[in-house]
Amino acid sequence: MKAARFYDRGDIRIEEIPEPTVAPGEVGIKVAWCGICGTDLHEYKDGPVFCPTHDTPHPISGETAPVTLGHEFSGVIDELGEGVEDLEVGQHVVVEPYIIGDEVDTGPESKDYHLSPNMNFIGLAGRGGGLGERIAVKRRWVHPISDSVSLDEAALIEPLSVGYHAVERSGAKAGDVAVVGGAGPIGLLTAAVLKALGITVVVSELSSLRREKALETGVADYALDPREVDVVKEVQKITGGKGADVAFECTSVQVVLDTLMDALRPTGVLVVVSIWAERSNFDIHKLVMKEIDLRGTIAYVNSHPATIELVESGKIDLKPFITGKIGLEGLVDEGFDTLIHRNETAVKILVSPSGEGL
Questions:
Q1: Enoyl reductase (ER) domain: which residues (predicted)?
Q2: How far is CA 230 from CA 49, 120, 261, 269, in A?
C-alpha cells in the first residue's frame, strides 16, 4: 500500500509499504480521509519532535524512523481482529490516536491518561498512520460514527476533540462570553464547540480571511482585528463593562496572551491551548490581582464520544472548515507548502491516501 513516511526534518517520502496485519484485539481500517495537522508541519520543518529518530526508538511503540504520518483520520472497518465483537465490517469510524502504555488506566472515568509517561500519537511515533491506505488500531481507540456524518467531515473530529477538551477545561457554560485569541484551525474549532454549547464568542484575529471564516461559519458572534480596534475595550462593551468569562489562547504569541488577560473579568479563566516553543513573559502580578485561573490543555481525554455527539446531532457543521482535498502524491507540494506559506487561505486540507473521493 502507499503511505507518507517521515524520515527526518524536511524528508517525507511517499512509498510502497506492506499492509498491516490485524492482531487480536485490533481493528483493520481502510483510511478514507486524513487531515494535515500543525504538528505534522512542525515535524516537517523542525522535527523530529514527536517522531522518533533513526536510532532512538519510541519507548512504547518501539519504532524508529521512518514512520507513517497522519493522526486526524476517518475510515471504514475492513477487518476485525480476534475478540472484537462489538463492531462490524463496513462501519464508519474515527480514531483517538493515542500511543499509551498498557499499564495506564484508559477507562471511561479516567481524566489523565493523556498525561501518562511517554504518551505519544499514532501517526507520529509509530503504529501506522492516517496517511497510509490502511491501518490496524487497538479497539480501545476506535470510535464508531453514524453514516449520517460524511467521512470527510469525520476526519475533523480529532482536532474538534482538542477544542472540546479545552472548553471542558475552561468550565464555560451557556450564557458566558468567551474570547478566542487566534482563528487558525484549532481556534475556529474551539469556537465551534463554544457556540454549540450556547456561549457568546468573540474572536481576535489579524487575518481578514480567517475573520471572515469565523463569521461565515457562525462560530463567532464578533470577529475583531486587533490592529483596528482595542480588543479589550470592545469586549468591555460587549459584556456591559464586566469582561469575558473565559478566554482561549490559540496562537503562542505573547501580545495575544496579554490581551486575553486584560479582556477577562476578575476571577475569569484563561486556557492556553497553543504549544509554546519559547518561554512566555507572563504578567504574574496581573494574574494575582484579578484572581485569574490559568489552565493548560493538551489533546483530549475521553472527549471523543461527546465530540462525536455534537457532530451527529447537527450542533456543529464541520464541512465549511474543509478547504482542500488532495491525493497522497501532493502532500508536500499542495498540502504542506500551502499550510506553511499560504496558511491564511486554508483551514483543513484533507488527504485521500487511496485517491478515492477526489
A1: 10-351
A2: 37, 40, 14, 20
**CA–CA dist 66, 59 (Å, integer):** 15
- Distance, in Å, from the CA atom of 326 to the CA atom of 34, rounded to the nearest integer, reads 10
Q: Quick: pLDDT tens for 113-163.
A: 999 999 999 999 999 999 999 999 999 999 999 999 999 999 999 999 999
Element (H, E) at 160: helix 157-170
Count of H-run helices and E-run strands, the chain: 10, 18
Q: What is the dihedral of CA 127, 133, 137, 139, to 10 degrees?
A: 170
Place of cell 481493528: 27
User: What is the pTM (predicted TM-score) of this model?
Assistant: 0.96
Domain positions in the chain are 2-156+318-352, 165-296
**Residue 330 — pLDDT band, cuts 50, 70, 90?**
very high
**Alpha-carbon span 80 to 24, nearest angstrom:** 8
DSSP result, 68-79: E---EEEEEEEE
* Contact between residue 310 and residue 196 where contact means Cβ atoms under 8 Å apart: yes
User: How do residues 76-118 score in pLDDT, each as one tens digit?
Assistant: 999 999 999 999 999 999 999 999 999 999 999 999 999 999 9
What CATH superfamily is the domain 165-296? NAD(P)-binding Rossmann-like Domain (3.40.50.720)
Which DSSP helix (H) or strand (E) runs through 16? strand 11-16
**For residues 13 and 332, what is the distance between their CA atoms, to the nearest angstrom?**
9
Which amino acid would we find at residue 185? Answer: P
Residue the block writes with cell 481500517 = 29
What's the CATH superfamily of 2-156+318-352?
Medium-chain alcohol dehydrogenases, catalytic domain (3.90.180.10)
First to last CA, the chain: 18
The owner of cell 490502511 is: 134
Q: Identify the pLDDT of residue 167.
A: 98
